[in-house]
Design goal:
Blueprint: E1 28-30, E2 36-45, E3 50-56, E4 68-74, H1 81-90, H2 93-103, E5 113-121, E6 124-132, E7 134-137, H3 138-144, H4 151-170, E8 173-174, E9 183-186, E10 193-195, E11 202-203, H5 230-233, H6 240-256, H7 268-277, H8 280-287, H9 295-305, H10 315-328, H11 363-367, H12 374-387
Antiparallel strand pairs: 1-2, 2-3, 3-4, 4-6, 5-6, 7-9, 8-11, 9-10
Keywords: ATP-binding, Kinase, Nucleotide-binding, Serine/threonine-protein kinase, Transferase
InterPro entries: CK1_Ser-Thr_kinase, Kinase-like_dom_sf, Prot_kinase_dom, Protein_kinase_ATP_BS, Ser/Thr_kinase_AS
Family: Belongs to the protein kinase superfamily.
Length: about 400
């Protein structure tokens, strides 16, 4: 079912479910590995769950500098299937550490999964999951910078995301919803960035077998409308080239302020046709003046457009393209993320007036309610049939989108 696109290009929220009751600080939860976790203060909430600061159980209360967060929701809401499925398969700390060592990277921006389970209180059962605590999201930083990121920063973010996406892809998943509000800075190091929200994560190659290309009108326009891939617009299951296409749209928006179709996000067919109609060069000319056009971004897009549905991306080639952009600026990736306005991009035209939306404390919290719908439900059912549901002591199946969301974790 095509999403009911709002001005922000987001899809319909799931049906309302039972809310989680708030636990007092000090509540102890024990995961399936028999490890105990103590809750601190709640730091976020959503449609039917709560997020708490957390730490390993001890005699001390959980302080403001706690290194973990725990999401808790009523067990009858169903398992956090897509996210829990991804985290348990691909985000265990030893797996991430092994990859970093093998690939010789100093940092990989995938939150680590520390445990999950069921908790009983007052005759009710609650499901929970433990991951790293993070900081602010990049959408907030983007808006603070006047909706412009410096070119050096954009290229650095592109390089970090290539590392993240290659890791995810090599573990049989695609993310399918890369955007600034799904990128969060580390709580302890503002120069590290993490890709979060795996609610649309899709196992594109279960047991190494690639999915076939198949258009399904009932699944058109999954994801966030302004960034989603042409494949997603056509109702095709996500693939690796789609993640990279989405990344290219993000980089362009971060540089020039807005994408050419942002004034018509309520018309997903128009957005789809615009993405299909324009070549990489024509698209870049729509976004930049000739003297400000970043050649490396156009070459990045051309490389991505050359990929077939099942093709493995040439990650090193894409890295070289972005690194050439840094070289043209006489810069290098020095590990420092500098969020300052400017960056050599052409001024963007003033956006058309759009419908007002509620103001949320944290952009990330709002965006995790963004991509629901029948297509996601069917996707999860398909994965369950293939792999078996990843559950923590049982629980119902997904109905609409089962969110794992977080607030700003500072």
């Amino acid at each position: 079912m095509p999403p009911k696109a709002k001005a922000t290009g987001r899809a319909r929220a799931p049906a309302k479910r039972k809310l989680a009751e708030e636990f007092p600080p000090g509540e102890v939860l024990t995961d399936t590995g028999k490890k105990s976790w103590k809750l601190g203060a709640p730091v976020g909430q959503g449609g039917f769950g709560l997020i708490y600061l957390a730490d390993q159980n001890s005699d001390k209360p959980v302080g403001k500098e706690a290194p973990y967060v725990i999401k808790v929701e009523p067990s009858e809401n169903g398992p956090l299937f897509s996210e829990l499925h991804f985290y348990m398969r691909a985000a265990k700390p030893d797996l991430i550490q092994t990859w970093m060592k093998t690939q010789k990277v100093k940092h990989l921006g995938v939150p680590r999964y520390w445990g999950s389970g069921l908790h009983e209180k007052g005759g009710k059962r609650y499901r929970f999951m433990v991951i790293d605590r993070l900081g602010t999201d990049l959408q907030k930083k983007f808006e603070e910078c006047g909706k412009r990121f410096p070119r050096k920063l954009v290229l650095q973010l592109g390089l970090r995301l290539l590392d993240i996406l290659e890791f995810i892809h090599e573990h049989e998943y695609v993310h399918a919803d890369v955007k600034a509000s799904n990128l969060m800075l580390s709580h302890s190091d503002p120069n590290q960035v993490y890709l979060v929200d795996y609610g649309l994560a899709y196992r594109y190659a279960p047991d190494g077998v690639l999915k076939e290309y198949k258009e399904d009108p009932k699944k058109c326009h999954d994801g966030t409308i302004e960034f989603t891939s042409i494949d997603a617009h056509k109702g095709v299951a996500p693939c690796r080239r789609g993640d990279l296409e989405i990344l290219s749209y993000c980089m362009v928006q971060w540089l020039c302020g807005r994408l050419p179709w942002e004034d018509k996000l309520q018309d997903p067919v128009y957005v789809r046709d615009s993405k299909i109609r324009w070549s990489a060069g024509a698209f870049m000319s729509k976004c930049f003046s000739s003297q400000d056009k970043p050649d490396e971004i156009q070459r990045f897009m051309e490389e991505v457009k050359s990929l077939g549905y099942k093709d493995k991306p040439r990650y090193e080639t894409l890295r070289s393209v972005l690194q050439s952009g840094l070289k043209s600026l006489q810069q290098k990736d020095d590990g420092q993320l500098e969020f300052t306005a400017g960056g050599g991009a052409a001024p963007a035209p003033a956006p058309a007036k759009r419908a007002s939306a509620p103001i949320f404390v944290c952009n990330y919290l709002t965006n995790l309610f963004s991509s629901a719908g029948a297509a996601q439900t069917e996707r999860r059912k398909q994965e369950q049939r293939e792999d078996g549901a990843v559950t923590q002591g049982g629980g119902g199946g997904a109905k609409g989108r089962d969110f794992f969301w977080v607030s700003c974790w500072f």
